[in-house]
Amino acid sequence: MRKTLSILILVLIFSCEKSEYKAIDFGSFEITVPQNWKEYKVKGIDSYVGGLVTNEQDTLIFDLGWYSGDLTKNIEILVFSETEYSEFSENQKSRLEKVKHLIVDDEFTAEYDAKEYLKYKFTKDSIACFSGKFIEPTNKGFGASGIYIDSIKGSRKNNNKTSMSFYGNDLSESTQAEFFKALKKMEFKDYCE
Q1: How distant, in Å, are the alpha carbons of 6, 26, 44, 90 from that of 51?
Q2: Please, which residues have CB within 8 angstroms of residue 179's CB and are 6 or more apart in sequence?
């Protein structure tokens, strides 16, 4: 009797505990995020836009439509001419001090290895039934983190291709890890069977 009662009490305790995660349904897809993250509503013009606000008050925005932005097409390097650097605000200069960058007399004639100063690194991985590109800053916390999925449906040939981007800027290492974990487990109920 005591054994049965102990088991029953343990079952009740574990069933009453709140989950650390929750699913948020955005209609076209569902994402499971930490319990304290909140849905963020945004009004899109030519696409479906929305997002999340993290416990650190970071805003993570998705864009599902024809014109979703692909950061992998913008190869940025953290190399600046002295003239360009002199025009930065004190805040921009302060932020740059914490990351690997280069200031040169003239960025067109200076010799350097651009690969050493890339702002982003990209990796491919599957997300639901799609192949996506994960984007993260080379210098943690300095730049955008997220995904780009080139074609959720349709094609460029037929001018009806739907893409998806989902990014957050300057995320802490722990927030980026939670965000990537959530992105890898997204479910696209309208698109994957």
Answers
A1: 44, 9, 11, 30
A2: 54, 60, 145, 146, 168, 171
Q: Is 22 helix (H, G, I), strand (E, B) or coil?
A: strand
Token pair of 89, please?
Answer: 């605000």
Q: From CA 50, how far away is CA 66, in angstroms rounded?
A: 15
Strand residues in 15-111 grouped as ranges (E):
21-25, 30-34, 38-41, 48-53, 59-65, 79-81, 102-104
Element (H, E) at 97: none
Over residues 118-130, the pLDDT tens digits come to: 999 999 999 988 8
- Lowest-confidence range among 36-50, 141-155, 165-179? 141-155
Coil, helix or strand at residue 16 = helix
Q: Which residues contact 161 (CB under 8 A, 6 or more apart)?
A: 66, 150, 151, 153, 154, 155
pTM equals 0.80
Location of structure tokens 């013009």 = 45
pLDDT digits (tens, 9 = 90+) for 24-72: 999 889 999 999 999 998 887 888 899 999 999 999 999 988 888 888 8
DSSP string, 112-171: --GGGGBSEEEEEEEETTEEEEEEEESSTTSSEEEEEEEEEES-TTTT--EEEEEEEES-
- Taking 3-state DSSP, the helix, strand and coil percentages for the chain, each rounded to the nearest 5, stand at 25, 35, 40
Report the pLDDT value the prediction gives residue 12, as an integer from 0 to 100.
47
